[in-house]
Amino acid sequence: MPRSAPPSALAQSPSPAAPARFAQSFATLQQLAADALAHAKAKGSSACEVEVSEGFGQSATVRRGEVETIEYNRDKGIGVTVYVGKRRGSASTSDFSPEALRQTVEAALDIARFTAEDEFSGLPDAELLARDGDFDLDLHHPWALPIEDAIAQARRCEDAAFAVSKKISNSEGASVATQEAQFVHANSLGFMGGYPTSRHSLSCSVIAGKGSAMQRDDWYSTARDASALASPEDIGATAARRALSRLGSRRIATCSAPVLFEAPVAASLLNSFVHAASGSSLYRRSTFLLDRLGKRVFSKKVNISEQPHLRGALASSPFDNEGVATRARDLVVDGVLQGWFLSSYSARKLGLVTTGNAGGSHNLIVVPGKRDFKGLLRKMDRGLLVTELLGQGINYVTGDYSRGAAGYWVENGEIVHAVDEITIAGNLRDIFRNIAAVGNDVVVRGSKQVGSLLIEEMKIAGD
């Protein structure tokens, strides 16, 4: 079948020069997407969207100085979704050959013809699609890291952990990983856009103590640009200090007390917020935030924005998984809920307009408060510092929250001993409204950026 030209694009990014490590050029991905759209139209689809992607990476893990694993991955795929009226079908393949592409489109059409009609299905409204052809948000930073150098960095990381103290008795390993990918998303409305991305990480997990008194902890750093990663020595030493600080851990008596969520685990509360405020939860009426738009759901101290266009950030994107343009917006202002997380489908179900969140949120930023971590401990005075959460005990319909936890007991604003084998419980309605302070100790590891969060009171189940 002759290759068709790419559709006239509402938003077609310039074809960047593909790094030699990518098997396909960006132009090839564009052409594959165009071919799929053309074949779907020729076979009778009323609408179609396509995503073509490829990626590769490597990781090396060292344990006690010896190489434990070396992994390489190289993936590619084409996903096709077609519409026949209000009937929808999807199919995918990892074969980029013309025949496989045609078969994938036809398989999606066959599925669509046998599915039930859904009045809310279909492509996004054309006027909402991204139109700016420049999609460069500085998201691609190749790391040409020879595997020998990756192993050496992992060893430096682990060596730094063991050097902290002789009480570091064992290691669960230190790892260095690098990943790159590129993709093109296109649909029959004329949209075509895509770009390359990267994500790199360093991590270390070690064990302190011996016998029944052993404790473990870890630390890691992740970034688009390897130059923004913490050093192997810092990561290893931090993991070791955290493991050592947990020695002598014990349970505490059941009580109610203030709870401080350390920054890395505070992000889990934002995850709960996103889940409860998502379109699928709303149209299923399975969220405790139902009918709360425009009302106070957080403490007045909490302000949350979505910033999808931060250059180099881990969750930046010029458009969502449907090609809808993303935009900066305020989600929570002085505790008052300003918006939802909607795709085109969920928005139609609710009689609303998509917010450009098909596929998830983009860089949720909680405005930091004035206190650093030590300042938050002093404000709490007496209570529980949570540094690890275990299990999933959240009922999003009622907001009931109960999770296993570990951390430290605090008296007079100072950590006095480690705590484990406890459960913290409450209701997300109360947890959100009773945030007494937001820290400025932000640890950036993903799509949520938040400092430590101090909750006025939660139930703590111990002895």
Write the layout of secondary structure elements.
Layout: H1 26-42, E1 47-63, E2 66-84, E3 87-93, H2 98-114, H3 147-164, E4 168-187, E5 192-208, E6 215-223, H4 232-245, E7 255-261, H5 263-276, H6 279-283, E8 304-306, E9 329-333, E10 336-337, H7 344-350, E11 364-366, H8 373-380, E12 383-390, E13 400-411, E14 414-427, H9 428-433, E15 435-438, E16 448-449, E17 453-461
Parallel strand pairs: 7-12, 11-16
Antiparallel strand pairs: 1-2, 1-4, 2-3, 4-5, 5-6, 7-17, 8-9, 8-11, 9-10, 12-13, 13-14, 14-17, 15-17
Helix pairs in contact: 1-2, 3-4
> How many beta-strand elements?
17
Give me the CATH fold name of the largest domain.
PmbA/TldD fold
Number of helices: 9
Could you say how many structural domains there are in total? 2
Indicate the CATH architecture of the largest domain.
2-Layer Sandwich
Helix-residue proportion: 10-25%
Largest sheet: 6 strands, antiparallel
Average per-residue pLDDT, rounded, comes to 93
Query: Could you name the ranges where pLDDT drops below 50 across 5 or more consecutive residues?
Result: 1-19
The CATH C-level name of the largest domain is Alpha Beta
Given helix and strand content, the structural type is alpha+beta
Within CATH, the superfamily of the largest domain carries the name PmbA/TldD superfamily
So what's the overall shape? globular
Beta content comes to: 25-35%
What value does the Rg take, in angstroms? 25 Å
- Series of secondary-structure elements, N-terminal to C-terminal: HEEEHHEEEHEHHEEEHEHEEEHEEE
What is the topology, as strand order, of the major beta sheet? 3-2-1-4-5-6
Distance between the termini: 72 Å
